[in-house]
User: Fold this.
Amino acid sequence: MIRLPEGSWWDWDVVTWGGGELRLAAGHDLTYHHGLELVFGDPVFVSCPSAFQDPIFRAPSPGELLKVTRQLECEPAVLVAFEADAGGQELASCLIAAERLHIVPGTVLRYWRDDADPDQRFAPWVRSPGQEAGPG
Assistant:
């Protein structure tokens, strides 16, 4: 089971998924920034909505481990399980298997700021004024 740093990690969404990486972002309100990222390296199995709230992380059940192991024909290096509010009547059961998991704290802005520190991180879709918008 994973342990998150102290913080208000109520709101979650998928920031990027491609190039061998699934990056989930979390914060108390994702409108302007997020303060935590779960970076899954080389994800091999993903079953979760693109946005959700208030996840409850837990150890994978023996059945979930067996399901993923059968599909991959080996036990994954990382297997994260959680239940989350995805807007339906019941909680969504989520499962992510990957080669690696990095928990990255720190503010990531979701909009351009001219006065941002030079080492400030921005969400992948944020472009400075005059910068050509690209994919993603």
In short: DSSP finds one helix and seven strands in the chain.
